[in-house]
Design goal:
By secondary structure, the chain is mainly α. The protein has nine helices and no strands.
């Protein structure tokens, strides 16, 4: 049974990196920075409702796969590469549907920021859940795993969900068909699934896979931040 101090440390190391990334993403804008209340709501949605909804939907979709002998060998692949990315990239950006958040979608970069923050909230709770399961592996393994999650996992969730947020924001501001956000949603799913593939399957070795995953998230988050800066510069 975990002590109160252990719980405190676990929550701290799980939530601190996503919170720091949230400030970093929010402050990428130089002009018309987002209000903290909308940032908080997006993070809170990602850390609570999005996680619970994703868990329920994933369990619901996993059941027939696990009981199907014909797909038993493919089940881990389908869950990690397809099911989890689709469900998580569906539940996280729903934060932009919140009335306060939607009302503040006034610039194209807003969707990128709100989507990224929702993804970071999701990543914070995911860090907590996975971190709890890794406590039994010893301090060294726990530290390595949390360091990996704090970098790769956080930036992946931020980058992928930012894309859907951007697509959704465009449809809201331009009052166009909601079908317009689908390409961004599918791209977010692809990014998420590809990252999971890199870190889960030893097609080039564990260290090489992790190295490629890290390069991948650095590349994607750099693109997202550069897009925010470019859009922000047009409104300054």
């Amino acid at each position: 049974m975990l002590t109160l101090m252990t719980w405190g440390v676990l929550v701290f190391v799980s939530f601190l990196p996503p919170l720091l990334y949230t400030i970093w993403i929010r402050n990428t804008e130089r002009c018309h920075r987002q209000q903290w209340i909308t940032i908080f709501l997006c993070f809170l949605w990602g850390a609570t409702i999005a996680v619970v909804a994703a868990l329920v939907l994933e369990i619901f979709l996993e059941i027939p796969l696990r009981f199907s002998s014909s797909h038993s060998k493919m089940t881990p692949f389908l869950i990690t590469i397809i099911i989890a990315p689709v469900i998580e990239e569906f539940t996280k950006p729903l934060a932009l549907q919140l009335r306060t958040v939607k009302k503040n979608l006034t610039e194209l970069e807003d969707g990128l920021i709100y989507g990224a923050v929702a993804g970071l909230g999701f990543s914070a709770t995911e860090n907590l859940l996975y971190g709890y399961s890794f406590l039994s592996e010893g301090f060294l393994m726990f530290s390595v795993f949390m360091a990996f999650r704090s970098f790769g996992g956080c930036l992946l969730h931020a980058s992928a969900t930012a894309l859907t947020g951007y697509g959704y924001g465009k449809t809201v501001m331009k009052k166009s068909s909601f079908l317009g956000f689908l390409p961004y949603f599918f791209l977010a799913i692809f990014l998420h699934g590809f990252y999971n593939f890199l870190v889960s399957y030893e097609f080039v070795g564990v260290l090489s896979g992790l190295g490629l995953a890290f390069l991948f998230v650095i590349f994607t988050i750099t693109l997202i931040r550069n897009k925010i800066k470019a859009l922000d510069a047009k409104t300054c």
